[in-house]
Every structure is written in structure tokens, then in C-alpha cells.
């Protein structure tokens, strides 16, 4: 605990609800709206528990949904001066299942048929199995039965204590069954297997529950709404049948991972439980009054509603701008790159306070092209490579190379040594010090390479990283992923970039952020620019008529709008060309229903433009 | 007040280490390891210490060529490995152990941990041996290293055979008394108060005229010697006691005269030392004394109010655990404390080499009966003391013994006896002082006559039992089965002698005139043509088939029965002897009777008559009636001659001697 810890503690003492949430020692679920400071409360709570209530050999267990939010969590803990012990677990639900349930326990129970060593289903085999399922069911168009839907069904069909049941079609159920059977015939296990099996083991084996209880007296869960049924089952089992204390944080209105099986209903089930205390954090410290009103009135979230905290934001700035373009996405990219950003800069908005939210990775890269032409520095949340454990480690190595105080050499070495040991690398027989010397030589040698591509090639080649990872059982797709990373560094958005930039990939520095809607969660900006606000694009054509999916799209829009502190700029195009059998067809698109309801509430002549009419303000 | 028993080593496997080539033995919560000198009792403990002893250094764990079994040629050039496996059970009641050893679990029914030590070659990528290293890991995965941190939760403490108990007791930091006191975390405020008071009291000495004089003289002398040295002020002090040292000064005094340890006998000092160790190693999850502030914070967590019910406030304001507590309350209290008392606590297995050292047999029996039956701490003794083995519960014996060229370890953990049999045999071992465990070979006999007769017979055929380490065990019945089981389990060679008890079957009619049969004993074969049998043979065949040594209903001839270690007489030993004897032998028997009988000449005449007319049963009845079989055999042993030794006895002796010889070559 350091001065920042106490400073932040003083801060939350000023908010009764935050302080109550921080102090709660019962099973608690914290419903935290946008901008309510939930991450701060959670990390303060985590540090306090770890220091005063959890003693060795017990540890702290913090579970979150994505690797990014785990990294954010670790960074926060570190900023409070907390150094995780070897007994702590801070990570994703997948790694929790693997490290703390399957690896230590599955071998005790042959009935679960876990084959050691555990091999993760590689992408190419996954694709092959999926296609053979399609074939078996005589389905020609993979849109009719996506792998995402199959996996979602597998996640949701897990039986347990929860009373929440989600509907699914017979076809998907059948496909899921065949797909599961096909995986069972291989020597592999996939991520859905891992967490479902882990939930099953926890549900069925008292000894496992008891041991987890001895290891982790508290279970802290961030982003509960995203975590899906398996984790929900594990939580119910551990809390009600093993006596582990729960501290869960989430927001039903920000539940946007339905395609992964993450529905708000699970979080709601917790809040309905009499043995779990629900605390609502409603003060919104981020956004202006208008943005809050907008998100509430136009997008109909379920209560509790965020409340504006007076004095936080100036309200005299125009909150909303509606820009309608004529044809295609290109028009939107163009107006953003040529006019909107420039106008914001004139008004004095820093680059890193601008977020552009697009609907797909393809859109992000197109947007990025326009930015590059205009020489506007930008930062991409979704890269063409996956932010895998190995990539995160490479970033940390880069970080050590540019500043030795940021990372522990021992920790970096430990990760590499584990890679070597777990991959039939001949060097596993080397003496520790020989391995360590090599690693030290390579890292210190790499410092002279300041360009990301040079640095990556030097480091990867000298450590023989690809040879180590080839045929990896734990990271089956990693060699391909490294290729993607190298490609990005050689030709694309990481080209000619300094390694410090690579080290800090997660954090924009004086750059405009370009992100997908889903990845925007957890970020915040002064100004949010929303692209592609056409009906049938957002919400998607495929979601029309499906109430659950529509509700989720609406929550997604709520998430996007609530990223903004003061300003929201919405863009749409009237016409898109669709390729049909009879040639191109220019189809007209209406404005998105979300555009319409925001426009009805906030639109006026001053803030509504066509692309050409939108002015370019000159610097004076 | 029942409490959970501490974790214990439930299985040991050793490969290629010192005396042991390949050993796999199950152990229990307490173990008494017996075996001859130089058979590997100490090395068995060393194998465990390689993994569990926290006082071992890296270099202690790094073995050398010498540590491989002798039969392995150039072990470190050929890439041979030493491997030691321990399994640990009985840890699951403690949540901290469960959390610490997740990676070591190999079964949950019953919960079992495995720890492995391996001494293995380090090879380069061309399979060439660079050097040797040791690894110690948890469970089945070599990646999960067993470290010192783990040893701070489960470890072993070995009290060696050659120990200087007096020094240990008096030493400061290592004294078990000091360690025990430290566990209570006495508040430093209290100690400072006392240390101040001590200083103050001691000041008085400095004011004595004599002391003042000494100080002045010393100052003057020093000043004159040191010349120009200006700072020559000399001060005298009595105590410079910091609070920590105050605890070192605690010493045990014994008896009304409060004698210090240095004046105690070695024996008493040993008892004191081992008792302190046992207290020190108790599970301290339940706090015997709680300080007020800690009590308050614990009570806040205590929803069921167990604490206020089971503790009472002392005058000094601490809370003390009550003495008489129901088992179920203890259980609840343990679970509560397990969750809320985070004081680090080690679970130590105590190993004592030769705990009998310097102790009078009566004390040995008294103390170790208590330890072996009632202590919560898991203990391992290595012992040569029949007094300790005689009070050892039957399932706690481990026998290390040479088989071929390496030592093997046998334990009684899985000895399956019925409760009754077990109690019988434990009582027997207790009464006979555990002699059965210490023979290189055992002769089982059914009565007092054999007990005297057999050693004398062995001397006559020039196979003195003592020379071969063979012990005669008189089990006072023909119920040999549990003894055979015990001896087989411990791999101790044995033979047994039992009477043949010849009988004939008589046919008769009962009152209602129905034909019946009955067995008639105590007759010499009269060639009546009646059906006949040997009760002794039937009994032995029955035992052998119950033990699964022979098939049910399998019939064996005399030779085959003897091959199974069983030597059976014709009638009963005395009768067989008389039947065997010629005039010289009969004469000896007559003389002994004459010497020992209580009555007059007529009594002697009757006895001689019986012998002369070959009414041997009648002669035996006279011995029993007028002297006693035991007394008669006792005297006979002195005057025994070869013709009085029945053939089955001498063959049996030859057989056991051969077995012992075989197993030691």
C-alpha cells in the first residue's frame, strides 16, 4: 500500500456508495454503471483483502473476462504497490480453469477423460471439425450455422445450479452435440471444454471445492456480465457449497458478449439472491449531463441509472453532432480524417481524448489508411495478431529493454524458461544459469534495435522462439500469430515504430484511438466518433426479429455512447452498393434506430450536417 | 480432548539408495523400525530426510557415487538414478496444508500427497552426461518443485542416536523450551516490564560497600596503567537483559530440590527433551491462550459464539482454553481456528533414533506406551529395545531385513487380523516383551515344555540357538495363525512345533440307542483297527489353508507339511520322548521325578511302574499332578541326552537353522 492507495481511498470515501462497496465483507455484487469508478473500488478492495484478510498459503483470486482487463487490473494493483504472491491468481476464467482446476485435479478423476499433457485444439483442426459438422448436417451456407453459435450453445447448455435457461434451436443443439463428439475423438481440448469441464468438476467433486476454498477464501470477479454460464456455475457452487466469499463487479447494461454466451441474466440472478448483498454504484464521474441523459433516454437501459455528478464537466459544449454522408463507408472515413479530427484539434481536444468506434476490424484498417494519409497519429485496439500470452510477454521484454525498472528480469526469464521446458526444446536439459545467460545476452543485445521489426526479428531469432513453439500443445496457433505480428511490424501499422511504442501497445500516447464497438468497453474519451450508424448495419440485419440479439445491440450502443465524457459524433451513409448476382445494387439505408432516438432528443439544425455541409473550422 | 492427528508418511519407495535397491513399504501414523545393526534403519530415515528435513543443505541433498547401492557398478558413469517417493496422508483437516499442496495431490480418496526426490544425470543435447543433479517435486509433475517453503509446512525432525541432550536443553536459540515459549508470542510489553524490574532489583548490588570499593580500585588501577588515556571511567552493571534474552534464560528444573538439567541423570534429561519436542510439535491451530486484542477480532468473526463458550478470561486479561471440552466442540473450534488463525504452523514428523537411550526398562515402557498410543504427532522410532516393541501396537512395526544382497522393508500396516486375534497377540507380545521381533529366526511352540526343551535339544545337536539368533516363542496354545501372519508379514523365518495328538474314533450307542462316534485321545496305538487321526495335523492343515498357503482341502504328507515349516509330533512331546527312549533315557526321567516329587517312595514307585509298563499317559499325568510340566522340563533341559529328543524336534531345529543361514548368505 503506497500513497496512491491512500489517496484513492480518500477519493472513494467521498462517495458513500463506493465506500460502502469497498467496505463490504459479505458476499457482494457491485452493479457499477459507466464512469462509476468500479475498477478503482475493485482494486482497492483486492489490495485490502490481500493485505489484511488473506494470509499465506492462501492467495487472492481475481478473475476477469479478457486479457486486456486482466492487464489493466494487474497494472492498477502494481500502482498501489501490491506485488502479487506466488499464491495469487489474477487472470482470465480460462487460465483459472486450466491452472487451478484441470491441471491439478482432473488426473484424480479418470471419469472426465482428460488426456495429459493438455493440448489445445489448433485453429486448422477446429475449422476441419466445424466443416465436417456442416457436411454431416447438409448445411451449405456457414451463415446458417456458425461456429460461434455452436460454441455459445455449448457454453449455455452446461447443467448446474443456475435457474437461467437460454433458448437455442434444435439445429444448433444437434450441431453442438456432433461437434463435441468430434472434439472428443481427437487428442485436443478447446476453451469451451476447459471451462465447462472445470465447472463440472467443481460441481461434482467436494474435495476440489474444499481445496479451492483453502486456497482462495475470496473470489473477486470483474466484468461479471461478460463471463458466461460456466463461470456463473463455478461461482454459485463455490459460494454456496464451499463457503468462498464473492466480490463481483459488473453492469448488466454493458453486457455485450452474448455471442460468447455472456448474458446479463446471470448477473441479475446474483442480485436476486438473498445471501448476496447488492450495492449499486450510480454516480457517473465521466460524462456530461447530456451524455448521461442521452444514454438513458435514448437507449432504455435497465435500472439502476447512472447519475450525473455536478461540477465534473462543462456543459456548454455541443454534445451531439449528426453527419449524414451520401454513399459508402469511404465517405465517412474521409470526413472524419479530413474535417472532424481537424475541427476537434482546433477546439483544443487532445488526440488521445478522441475515440473512433467502427463496427469491424476491416473498417478499422480502412479508417487507419485514411488517418495515415492525413498524417494523423492513431492507435489501434484490435490488431491483426492476437494479444496472446507470448505477445504480452514480448511486449514486457521490450518494455524491459527500454526501461529496466518496468519489469523484473527474473519474471521475464521465468516465462521463457517455462516455454522451453514445456515444448520439448532440447535446451530444457541445460543448466538454469546457461539458459539465463543466453536470455540475458539476447535481451541486452536487442537493446540496440530500436525499430520494432528489427527488435522482434532479433529477439525471436536469437531465442529460436518459433522453433520452440512449433507444434506447441498449449499455444497451437502461436507461430502463425508471431508471423502476423512480424508482418504488422514489417509492413503495416507497426512499421517503423519505436519499441517503446510496442511495449505500450495497450495505451495510446497522443494518438487517436480506433476501436471496434466491443473493444471500446472500458475505455473513455472526451469525444466519441461513431461510424456506420445505419439501420440494418447497427443493429445488424441478422438481429432483426431476434429480441435477445436486439437487446444486446442496444446495450452495445449504450456502451459506445457512454464512453464519451462530453461529445458524441455520429456518422451514417445513405447508400451502400451491394454485390448481387445481377450486378451491383445501390441500396438505400435508413438511419439507425439509435441515431433516430438520439436525434429526436438532441438533434437540431445547428448540429446536423451533410458531409459536404459539415464545415472545416480554420485555425486562427 | 480428542484432536486431529497430524499428517504422516503413509508410504515410502526407495530405489538404488544406500542399503536399498528397491523398496516399497506402507507406513502408519506411528512407526517403530526394528532391524539388526547395519541393515539400514538410519539410512531409511536419511531417505525421508532428503525430502523433508529443513535443516538439510543443498550439499546434503546432493549425493555422490557412495550413495548408490553397492551392487550398482559405476552408477554415475552409466546414468543410474536414485529415486525416493513419499506419500503423505492425514493432512486434509487442515485447510492450509490443502492449499499449500494442491500440486502434490495424487488421490482424493483418501486424500494423498506424493513427494519425490530424484538424483539424476544432467545430459546435454547429445545425451552425454554433464553432471548429476537432484530434483524434488510434488505430485507427478517434475515442474512442481518441492521447496523450502513447502518444508515449512510439512517436515521431519530427527533426534539422532548420539545426542547431547543436556547441551540442546541449555542452548539458547535451539532449546526446545525456548522454541515452545516463542510459539506463544508473549507480548513484548509484559517482557519489558519484567526486564526493567529485574534491572532495578539488580541495582541494589551495585550499592553494596564492597562493590563500590571494587569499582573504585579498578578505576584507579586502570587510570594509572593507561596513563594519558583520558576516558577511563569504569562502570559495573549486573544485567543487560533485552526482552528476547529474558526468554532464553528460562530453564527447566526438576524435583523438589529444583535440580538443573546439568545435574539430572542422562535418562531423565532424555525424557525431558523428548517430551518438550512432542509438545513443541503439537498442532497449534487451536490456540491455548489468546491475547485480548486478538480475541476481540476473532470473536467478531465467530457467528456461533464458540470462543466465548470455550475460553475463559485469565487474571492477566488473556483468554485461556478450558480443560474439559466435548469432542464435537473441539471439532467446531478446530474448523473455526483453521479458518481464522493465520499464525504459520509447521507439521513436523518426529523421528527418534534409539529413544530407549539411557532409560530404565520400566520408564521406556511407560513413556512410549503413552507416545505410541495417544500422541497426535506422527513419530518414527528406530529401536533395539524389546521394551519399546512390547508396547508397540501391532500395526506400527517396520522390520528392515537383508534379503539377498539388499535390505528390504516390511511393515505390519496391512496385517489383516481379527480384532480378537490382534488383542491376543498384542497381549502376548507385551507379556513376552516383544521378543518375537528380534529373532533372526523364530520357533513357535505350544507350551512350556517346548520352551525349555528345544534350546537344550539344539545344544545337543550342536546347533546352539543363540549362535544363530533364533528365539523360541511359546504361544501357550495351538492357535499359531496370527503369529504366522505376523512373521510372514515381517519376513522373519520361522518353524513351529506342535503335538500330533493321535486319536482313535470309538463307535458307541447313546441312551436312545442311536449309533454315535467320539474321539479318544491319550492312548498309544493299540492296533485296534479303529479309525484314527492326528488332531495336530488337522489343525496345521486348517491354518495353512486359511492363510492361503495351501489350497482348501489339500492333503499334505508329513514331508510336505515340514516343507511348510511345521513339525508335528506323534502324541505329545513328553509321551513322544518316553516312547523314543531306551533304558538310559527312562533312567534319567525316573531320577528327575525322584528329585522333584513332593511325596514319598510310593509315589516314585507308581511313576516308575507306569514308565516300565509303557503307560506313558499315566506317567505324564503323574508329572503334571505331582510336579508340573514346566518344572519337570526345566530340570530335564539340564540332563537331556540325544535319545530323548524326538526326531521331529531335531529336524525342525535343523530346518530353522538352515533358513536363517540361507537368508544371511
From TrEMBL, chain A:
Pfam families: UvrD-helicase, UvrD_C. It catalyses: ATP + H2O = ADP + phosphate + H(+); Couples ATP hydrolysis with the unwinding of duplex DNA by translocating in the 3'-5' direction. InterPro entries: DExx_box_DNA_helicase_dom_sf, DNA_helicase_UvrD-like_C, DNA_helicase_UvrD/REP, P-loop_NTPase, UvrD-like_ATP-bd. ATP binds at residues 32-39. The keyword 4Fe-4S does not apply. GO terms for biological process: recombinational repair. The keyword Nucleotide-binding applies. PROSITE patterns: UVRD_HELICASE_ATP_BIND. PANTHER family: ATP-DEPENDENT DNA HELICASE SRS2, UVRD / RECB / PCRA DNA HELICASE FAMILY MEMBER. This is DNA 3'-5' helicase. It comes from Sphingobacterium deserti. The lineage of its organism: Bacteria, Pseudomonadati, Bacteroidota, Sphingobacteriia, Sphingobacteriales.
UniProtKB/TrEMBL annotation, chain B:
Residues 32-388 form the ATPase AAA-type core domain. The keyword Nuclease applies. Keywords: Endonuclease, Hydrolase, Nuclease. One of its GO terms (molecular function) is endonuclease activity. The keyword RNA-binding does not apply. Residues 438-501 form the OLD protein-like TOPRIM domain. It comes from the Bacteria. It holds the Pfam family OLD-like_TOPRIM. InterPro entries: ATPase_AAA_core (IPR003959), Bact_Antivir_Def_Nuclease (IPR051396), P-loop_NTPase (IPR027417), TOPRIM_OLD (IPR034139). This is ATP-dependent endonuclease of the OLD family. It comes from Sphingobacterium deserti.
